[in-house]
Design brief:
The structure holds 2 protein chains of 2 kinds.
Chain A lengths: L2 H36 L7 H19 L2 H23 L6 H20 L12 E3 L7 H6 L1 E3 H19 L1 H11 L1 H6 L4 H25 L13 H11 L4 H23 L6 H5 L1 H13 L17
Antiparallel strand pairs in A: 1-2
Chain B lengths: L1 H27 L4 H13 L2 H26 L7 H18 L5 H30 L3 H21 L33 H18 L1 H11 L1 H6 L4 H28 L10 H11 L4 H16 L1 H8 L5 H16 L18
Helix pairs in contact in B: 1-2, 1-14, 2-3, 2-12, 2-13, 3-4, 3-7, 3-10, 3-11, 3-12, 4-5, 4-6, 4-10, 4-11, 5-6, 5-10, 7-8, 7-10, 7-12, 8-10, 11-12, 11-14
Classes of the chains: A mainly alpha, B mainly alpha.
């Protein structure tokens, strides 16, 4: 085998491994956003959940010594942020997109403020399943290190699809999201259902954040989250509000984000910074390709405003 | 009259409430909140020295705020000010470096033009995507921020890099003669004048011309605007272009009045803070001026808080976030306070 063939193969393997590693936070945030949007509300503030989840998860894992407790606290932090978002949005004349931007700023500031003491210390990492223990190649070995959170996410996606289709609560969320009037006629408390959906979605996004600080990249710093929270919104549109498609889309995005580092690992530095923009360009391209001036998106909840 | 009073009193009340919430937050983290508030005031407006600091920081805020405010008038929530500032700054530098040696006035003018054009087209792209493909403008503008930063990193750390800059990788210098100087004896650079003039010009444009009126009609009811035959697409593109061009000037100032080179300091959060300024000013270009000075003051006090109280530099970010949330929540109050509503004569 030629030298170059080996390196191209390792790029492909690194991208595939990266798709899982980088895609996991996307998966959780997009599932959270999907749940929120199914109830007819959009939460652009999930970026805040992500970064607050990363910070609180890391802090608690460091203080308690348990990474899983960190994950739980990260989720609860996201839940509280979701509640705040929800309480603000249900006021009259308050724009949910603007509230999302404000939450994003507030959450980022708060995470940097409270997270200052945690930049130095090393917290326990989340455990990974070493599926690659039987291979020799170090590249393949690291690509096959699968984190437990990814597996939870993979199970969660079809479960959520089932929930929307068959569970009583899932149908309630969808009714509220499709038509406020129909929901009111059924005697449902629209604001309450939306609040629960936003809180649960916020929980998932917080868990996604803990993956960033507790597994990959695996430390807490201020540059940890860079727009993943908002890209998840585009990802949900791409996934047509279907949780299972969210899984595929997350892997695609994760792979795009892993492209730059993978090329760098084999010594291709040319245009490294441009490759870093790949996930953003991909998102924008998908948004342009799937949007239409004439019609609404297929599968889009009826109550959702201007996306 | 009542309307003006309402749109003054509600934001001021919201600001006061934000300060109270911030104080509670500071108190919980174990620092004397009164002393912190006092330090913010001293760091922002306490002396001529701090005023100069504040005004220098307010100039880019005025310009990036316009990048959110103008599109907002036509109904688009654009958060691409950060990217527009970066793009404008980088391409202006590129022009400045390549014509270095020509008379300074020409170089500076060319840089300002280049910054306005590139940044204007950058945000114009957001408007075009919205109008022609119905791509959500908030998401596309945020994505463009990251793409802009990637382009800048590529250019500044690659082809444009001055090998002599080691610690803070930067582009080549635009030439000392081509820098925008300070106003009189102060340490306030000429960027402030750009900020003030652009805000004033755009305020006049929005308030006293048919263009501004048409933009507000579209922002108020796009269907009505279409039916009455307004060129909606064209107006969206122009408005987005103007907003982007304003933010582009902020980038030019950062290069031509502060750094002398394009580097990563172009991406220092002015674009995001500008969003807050725009919302606080209710997207009115004239109101942006005082609000930008206020926010510039908060940012200027950040250093004093770090040194004096050992507070993290994110403290002012928390304060800005609280202000933003409270201001948005205060939208709920408009038209609800009885004594602020005009009395309508009732006939029996």
């Amino acid at each position: 085998m030629l030298e170059s063939d080996v390196s191209y193969l390792s790029v492909v393997i690194a991208v595939l491994g990266g798709a899982i590693r980088v895609g996991t936070p996307f998966l959780f945030v997009s599932l959270g956003e999907c749940l929120t949007e199914k109830s007819g509300r959009i939460n652009l503030g999930l970026e805040a959940n992500l970064i607050m989840g990363a910070m609180s998860g890391y802090g608690i894992a460091y203080l308690s010594g348990s990474a899983w407790l960190g994950v739980l606290v990260a989720g609860m932090t996201g839940l509280v942020l979701g509640m705040v978002h929800s309480l603000l949005c249900q006021q009259e004349r308050v724009n949910d997109i603007a509230v999302g931007i404000a939450m994003m700023m507030f959450g980022t500031g708060l995470a940097f403020y409270l997270g200052k003491p945690f930049i130095q210390p090393v917290a326990p990492r989340l455990p990974a399943l070493e599926l690659g223990a039987w291979v020799d190649s170090p590249v393949l070995k690291s690509a096959l290190e699968i984190n437990a959170l990814f597996i939870i996410g993979v199970i969660l996606a079809p479960l959520m699809a089932w929930f929307f289709r068959y569970a009583r609560w899932g149908l309630i969320v969808r009714t509220v999201g499709e038509s406020r009037d129909a929901a009111l006629a059924m005697g449902l408390n629209v604001n309450l259902v939306r609040m629960y959906a936003t809180m649960a979605g916020g929980f998932l996004a917080g868990v996604g954040g803990s993956f960033l600080s507790l597994y990959y990249p695996g430390s807490w710093n201020e540059g940890l989250s860079s727009g993943q929270g908002l890209m998840a919104v585009a990802l949900v549109i791409f996934a047509r509000w279907n949780p299972v498609y969210c899984l595929y889309a997350s892997l695609l995005f994760g792979g795009a984000a892993a492209l730059g580092p993978a090329l760098q690992s084999v010594g291709i530095n040319q245009g490294y910074y441009l490759f870093n923009a790949a996930p953003y360009i991909l998102t924008l391209g998908i948004m342009i390709a799937t949007s239409s001036r004439k019609q609404r998106f297929a599968g889009m909840p009826g109550e959702m405003s201007n996306i | 009259m009542f309307k003006l009073l309402e749109s003054l009193l509600i934001p001021i009340a919201a600001l006061v409430l934000s300060l109270v919430l911030f104080s509670v937050f500071i108190w919980f983290s174990g620092t004397n909140a009164f002393e912190v508030l006092g330090a913010i005031y001293r760091g922002a407006f306490g002396s001529w020295f701090s005023w100069q600091n504040t005004l220098v920081r307010s100039a880019p805020l005025m310009l990036t705020a316009l990048c959110t405010a103008l599109p907002a008038r036509i109904g688009l929530i654009n958060i691409g000010g950060e990217g527009a500032m970066v793009v404008g700054g980088v391409f202006a530098t590129l022009v400045g470096i390549s014509i270095n040696g020509m008379p300074p006035f020409i170089v500076i003018s060319a840089m300002v033009l280049a910054g306005m054009l590139t940044a204007g087209m950058w945000i114009g792209m957001v408007g075009a995507l919205k109008h022609f493909r119905n791509v959500n403008e908030t998401i596309s503008s945020l994505l463009l921020n990251y793409i802009a930063i990637a382009i800048m990193s590529y250019l500044v750390l690659g082809p444009m890099r001055d090998p002599a800059t080691l610690n803070n990788p930067s582009s080549f210098h635009i030439g000392v003669a081509n820098m925008i100087g300070n106003i009189g004896e102060s340490s306030i650079h000429g960027g402030l004048i750009f900020g003030l003039v652009v805000c004033l010009v755009l305020w006049i444009l929005m308030r006293y011309t048919t263009f501004g009126f048409s933009v507000d009609v579209i922002g108020g009811n796009i269907r009505a605007a279409q039916i009455s035959g307004l060129p909606v697409g064209k107006l969206i593109l122009i408005t987005c272009f103007l907003g982007g061009a304003a933010a582009g000037i902020a980038g030019v100032i950062e290069v031509a009045a502060v750094q002398g080179r394009a580097n990563l300091s172009l991406n220092s959060g002015y674009g995001y803070a500008g969003i807050l300024v725009a919302f606080l000013a209710r997207h009115n270009p004239l109101a942006i001026i005082p609000v930008a000075i206020l926010l510039g003051g908060i940012r200027a006090s950040s250093g004093l808080l770090q040194r004096g109280f050992d507070l993290p530099d994110a403290t002012t970010m928390v304060l800005q976030g609280i202000i933003f949330i409270v201001i948005l929540a205060s939208e709920f109050m408009y038209g609800r306070i009885k004594w602020l509503q005009p009395r309508v004569a009732t006939h029996a």
